[in-house]
Amino acid sequence: DAAAVCRLNQACLDYDYPEERTAQRLEQILPSSANLLMVAEHLPTGRVAGYIHLCDYECTYSDSVKNILAIAVDPADRGRELGRRLLACGEKWARDTGAAGVRLVSGQNRTEAHQFYLSCGYSLRKMQKNFIKLF
Q: Are the beta carbons of 106 and 128 closer than 8 angstroms?
């Protein structure tokens, strides 16, 4: 599903990352028990309509939670409860593995996504900047 994940990352999350590297990352991520990546697909075609990726979030200032690193639903499939079902599956995994909750960060400009998260029972905790230093 690397091609579909890559397509969704570009269309929904504005990440322009090559498909080949996406496939390599999936090969590293999928075997890890600290990660869960699930896709939602149309049956019987198998076309991927969305995905969610969560991982362990361990720190010194909070109980163990799961971090939603990505959730993306194809724009053509929005409004069909797919995002809610993906979140519910991720939250179930978090509960089943003993996590105290689920967290996520979302870009400032993704206001529609923010309303979606609020409607799913998430609360806005704080505003923050996101910094990165690549090597």
A: no
Residue 92 pLDDT exceeds 90? yes
Contacts of residue 68, defined as CB under 8 A and 6 or more positions apart, other chains included, come to 52, 53, 54, 87, 90, 102, 103, 104
User: CA 135 to CA 117: how far, in whole Å?
Assistant: 33
On the 0-12 / 13-18 / 19+ scale of CB atoms within 10 A, 75 is exposed
pLDDT in tens, 3-29: 999 999 999 999 999 999 999 999 999
Nearest CA among 115, 106, 101, 109 for reference residue 71: 106
